[in-house]
């Protein structure tokens, strides 16, 4: 029998439909209020909800529950407890209390806290986020939770994300009130993340220490065919991958994740999956789950999914497109141009607010996507540059330009609108052209932030985006609330904001070198590497912004800075150590053995008076590269030792960037050349050819 989407969709989720079935009417109404409007949950309701969840979970065969959270490691964490409790007369009882639902206390001492939690105070708490449904994964009832310390500091990514959503909700509603929306109870940011990944055959993966330890290849010569024919992008999906995708979709649907679009990406063995958008915290939870389930289902198909930003040199890496908008609980998308002049004015106000937010907080957006892996993409000719800019498209740019110049825009006399006191044409819906090179592109009814790395949690960039926009909206509301002449003030605000921040708008080709120069002239940031970008998070004005919007306090910002810098440093150190291991134990010995074979052949041939030109030629070439590799290896070895003695986390990050990474490159180069000179049967691990075409 064929399973249909409706059969399985959300079957593993305790969603509102199931709550309705399992809960008394008034209990259901209470929990609904909590979910929709963020009303606090009283303990009695929690008790009833917990009981219902347990009944449902047991009926689905679950045995355990866990508080599922998102520590600062970037992955998700869970610690399982079974429902088992001692019952009467040596019996067992299956229990799950309201307290257990609402609050957990995992030992937090081994999660990174950047000094927020002294080791003697290992206690961390998890608290249920009722706006994200409870679900069952591998027989475990998972409760999405926020994770914080004894002192109340956020130790995770969800807490500040929820706070940033609250900030933007408050400010957007202030603005909307001025436009006469009295019925709006909440404004939520919506996100649809497109996720890229690679698939490689498990057998080849397991022969590569670099893939196993670091998720990317640290050695490897280019294979004859890369992505130059563009024959993979949107190509026919091969049968093995298709059957993987079928199972993947099924598993995602069961968890209520609305997997919608799937296709081959640009590079060989690269793919993309995109769900239908949802509110940001759910989209974030779902994206974390999606990454986990892609990996699990791939294994079941004898493959390994690589979520790393740059698994292979010479071909495109992987990113994540964060499609972002704002929506009211009454169903209005605030980034959709309206049907009436009044709505268009409101649209333009939100638009220029975002333009201002992105311009003023380029540094925060940039650093929110900074990681060791993403450093390989940003600025390379495949992903947006490290420079933040906005693509608006010609029509919107012209309209804003006309407002700035006090022109009345006269494209079509019948097609006009009023913005405040000006006369302008009606904004056509879906009028934007496609631009693939912009890091932050308006795509008709949302912005698409294209810089995030494929393995990153989208919490990071959305925290920044929400906070920055919330702060600007609060400024706008301050001005407009005080205005005597609302229309005139609004008009002026749109005009002046655009004028002041239009330098961030760039509708051209972001991959072009000329843009780098132009951006510099405009005074835009070009923060090339992670250690360049991260220190901006602790600038006093940024700390002030986070505090003003109640998203992060100073200690939280400082601790996150330290954690992120250390993570960068540790990742590169692991890569360096892995390279040393592979070079010393695998590559150099193999090449040396092959040289020996060649030398033996040379002497046997010579003894018989036969030419040994190939052997002699290759021995020379290989030996000179072997010498280079050996020198580079010694250099990298000594640098990793120097590095291990650096205590200061900032110095360490800059040391790996400036010393370790160049030393790694210097080791890779001769090794990759040797790969092209050595007998394939001698080469110690699968080549790019096998990795990239091995699943086809
Ligand atoms: P493309 O590849 O053309 O950019 P996709 O269909 O792959 O488009 O992905 C677009 C994503 O944007 C989807 O996840 C979609 O649900 C999402 N999206 C659409 N409208 C909104 C919105 N208002 N807010 C957030 N995301 C949205
Ligand atoms: Mg896309």
Description:
- By secondary structure, this protein is α+β, with helices and mostly antiparallel strands.
- It is 48% helix and 14% strand.
- The strands form 4 sheets. Strands 10, 11, 12, 13, 14, 15, 16, 19 and 20 form a 9-stranded mixed β-sheet that branches.
- Helix 9 (239-254) packs across helix 10.
- The chain is globular, with a radius of gyration of 28 Å.
List the helices and strands and how they pair.
Blueprint: H1 5-8, E1 13-14, H2 16-22, H3 25-37, H4 43-59, E2 64-68, E3 80-82, E4 84-86, E5 92-94, H5 98-102, E6 103-104, E7 124-128, E8 134-137, E9 140-149, H6 158-178, E10 187-201, H7 202-205, H8 209-214, H9 239-254, E11 259-264, E12 270-275, E13 278-279, H10 280-300, E14 303-306, E15 320-328, H11 341-360, H12 362-368, E16 390-391, H13 394-404, E17 416-419, E18 422-425, E19 440-442, E20 447-449, H14 459-482, H15 486-501, H16 513-522, H17 530-533, H18 540-548, H19 554-607, H20 613-644, H21 649-677, H22 688-693
Parallel strand pairs: 2-9, 16-19
Antiparallel strand pairs: 1-8, 2-3, 4-5, 6-7, 7-9, 8-9, 10-12, 10-13, 10-14, 10-15, 11-12, 15-20, 17-18, 19-20
Helix pairs in contact: 6-14, 9-10, 11-14, 11-15, 12-14, 13-15, 14-15, 19-20, 19-21, 20-21
Magnesium ion is lined by residues 194, 321.
Any key phrases for this structure?
696 residues; binds magnesium ion; alpha+beta; 22 helices; seven-stranded mixed β-sheet; globular; 48% helix
